[in-house]
Specification:
The protein is of the alpha+beta class. It has a 7-stranded mixed beta sheet with strand order 2-1-3-7-6-5-4. About 25% of the residues are buried.
Length: about 325
């Protein structure tokens, strides 16, 4: 009497074996060791999302994964890297996803061996279902083994950066009018700061991916055949261009913040100049008329018949000359 197969845990998104002919067959985790025992040229591809310790321990048992790699997968806070453990590789790649108009970051851990590929997603990360569908549409490339599936996953990760970087660029262009505006908008400065902060986090994820991909392209491991290295080289080129774009956008954001601050300072200076100009116009008649409020008996022109109109005319003349001068030097 056959025992019914135990269903996979919810964290197991995909568990399939691909034959040499590219035909896919879903398998439970408990049957993986039996599949690997039958060396028919196929390979196993397991996709997980935030698995618990029990699932990771099960995978370690089925694939013979190294303790240090499993320990890293438990922690799920790793810098993008690639490490070799015997005849297998452990790859960590940074992922990004837009969630509620904010960029959320995650990571994917990849266990890669001669006949298996295990992807473990943590945090913000899009599904690799499109990557699996792409691989399944190209059985002749699928025959290259799990290395081509690894390329499809890394290519999907890097391609997911593109719309995020494009959104950054569009947002920066949209803020240009606010940046050069004569009025100070606190929200504009806050948005610029948020963009630069998120771009910095983005660079932390993107830049190390170049090292990971470079190592895979230059690797002499038999796990990565020459045919697949050509594809990985294309992913590396995309990663380099994205990183250059991120650097450029960060520089532009830094310049935008500096320009905005300079314009605000200049505007404040103009306001201070105008206030100082009007204060000077008010100071002239105040100074002159204050002399006649000191209640001395012997004051010039105090008892003259035309003293008052002469004083008013004199004040008007001083104010008029001062006004024309301030207009000339652009203080008013």
């Amino acid at each position: 009497m056959e025992t019914a197969a135990v269903p996979n845990p919810p964290s197991v998104i995909n568990s399939a074996v691909y034959g040499r002919d590219g035909v896919r067959r879903d398998v439970p985790l408990d049957a993986i060791s039996d599949v690997l025992a039958d060396d028919d040229g196929g390979f196993v591809w397991i996709g997980l999302y935030e698995p618990d310790d029990t699932v990771l321990e099960k995978l370690q048992e089925e694939f013979g994964l190294h303790d240090l790699a499993i320990e890293d997968a438990h922690k799920a806070h790793q810098r993008p890297k690639i490490e070799a453990y015997g005849n297998s590789l452990f790859v960590v790649a940074g992922t990004a996803q837009v969630v509620e108009q904010k960029i959320a970051f995650g990571e994917t851990h990849v266990f890669f061996g001669p006949r298996y590929l295990v992807t473990v997603r943590h945090g913000a990360s899009l599904s690799y279902a499109p990557a699996r569908a792409r691989v399944e549409r190209e059985p002749e490339l699928l025959a290259l083994g799990p290395s081509f599936a690894l390329y499809a996953v890394l290519d999907a990760i890097v391609d997911n950066y593109l719309p995020i970087v494009a959104e950054f660029k569009n947002t920066l262009l949209a803020l240009e009018q606010d940046i050069v505006s004569e009025s100070f908008e606190r929200a504009t400065v806050i948005r610029l700061y948020d963009l630069k902060r998120e771009l910095t986090y983005m660079q932390v994820n993107v830049a190390p991916m170049q090292d990971v991909l470079s190592q895979l392209v230059r690797s002499s491991s038999p796990l990565v055949p020459e045919e697949v290295r050509l594809y990985l080289r294309d992913v590396l080129d995309h990663s380099v261009r994205i990183n250059q774009t991120v650097d450029l956008l960060r520089d532009m954001l830094g310049t935008a913040l500096a320009v905005n601050q300079a314009l605000v300072t200049q505007t404040q200076g103009e306001v201070v100049k105008r206030l100082a100009g009007w204060a000077a116009l008010l100071a002239a008649p105040t100074l002159i008329t204050s002399w006649y409020g000191m209640n001395f008996v012997h004051m010039p022109e105090l008892h003259g018949r035309w003293s008052y109109p002469v004083l008013v005319a004199g004040v008007a003349l001083v104010v008029g000359v001062l006004y024309r001068y301030l207009r000339k030097v652009r203080w008013l």
